[in-house]
Amino acid sequence: MSSTVVTQTSATLKLQSDFAALNAETKRTRRIAYPETKEAQRQWQLEQMAGAFRIFAKLGFADGSSGHISLRDPVDPETFWINPYGTHFGMLTVSDMIHIDKEGNRIGGADGPVNVAGFMIHSAIHQQRPDINAACHMHSRFGRAWSTFGKPIEMLNQDSCMFYDDLSVYSNFGGVVFAKEEGYRIADALGPKNKNLIMRNHGLLTSGGTIAEAAAFFIALEQACETQLLVEAAVASGKIEKTYIGEKEARYTKDGTGSPAVMYLQFIPEYEMIMKETSAEFLL
Fold this sequence. Notes:
The chain has 284 residues and is α+β, with helices and mostly antiparallel strands.
């Protein structure tokens, strides 16, 4: 990781101090503490967006030019931010993000190219699900492997229960998403309330009210897919059997481990660690 020392303005330093205080308040109350103004919320989320990419790079989720995260703009909710096409996750900074409208017109941010497939997917999700403010889609190793079965994960352990009644499967494969119709079919598969999606023969998509929630869900779903694959391999001989968590217990566990505030709290330690490891260079 880079050890670049970041030069920041007094205003940016104040925002960082404010956000550190917000994170401390969230940890204390287990409720997400938001910046007071929409402009501050935009900066807060863009910093977490850049940080999420650095975390994903560290975890091995980068795959060439594939993968994207989007953020509904807090100031203008009919628009959203997305990462530039063809830049490695481990190099992305706040100033690299691109601000576009629902038609794909650039209205601010950086001048980099936009991933067409990424736009089609995220534009459809943000239009059809006003409750979703952030979404992550990657071609991660274990998510991609499990997606070939076209099945949801099973309630095998406590961590799997994060996704109880909150995981859909997109059972079609339409190739690279270059058409609006395919983007809307993916958004439809997510459904009216679920935040997480297994895209058959493709990969994973997660979402949430904040970047932190969507990113934490992605990390957890990738790990759940890895666990599922390990369990499937272990029981293949037929000598041992799986045990499942009951519906009542799974729902109770979901309420305690998969809420927006808890997922946000899952993200904070990773974010603080990547800040330290990179000397916060992604905030530029």
